[in-house]
Amino acid sequence: MTLINLAGTQLQVQEYLRAGQLAAARNLLINRNISPRLIAKWLTPEQQEALGFVSPELMAEPKIDNQA
């Protein structure tokens, strides 16, 4: 995806959020395979929560149990 497409996607997501169209914003992010890191940069924590996304900073590192 080009930088212009990313910028357009970001603007479109913000427009959907301002209009209260949460499903449309979420579908756009999912269908365009926007990474969780970009979502974290583009959206406030409140917006991420409203859309059902978890910020990468909030995701715990997977723990590997080597004692098996």
Give descriptors for this structure:
single chain; 68 residues; mainly alpha; 4 helices; 59% helix; globular
Structure overview:
Helix 1 packs antiparallel against helix 2. This protein is globular. The protein contains four helices and no strands. The mean pLDDT is 84. It is mainly α and 68 residues long. The longest helix has 16 residues, at 3-18.
Give a short account of the largest sheet: none
Silhouette: globular
> What is the helix/strand order?
HHHH
Give the oligomeric state.
Answer: single chain
**Low-pLDDT segments, ≥5 res:** none
The overall pLDDT, averaged over residues, is 84
Task: Specify the structural class.
Answer: mainly alpha
Query: If you compute it from the alpha carbons, what radius of gyration comes out, rounded to the nearest whole angstrom?
Result: 15 Å
Gist of the model:
This protein has 68 residues and is mostly helical. The chain has helices spanning 3-18, 22-31, 36-42, 45-51. The protein has 4 helices and no strands.
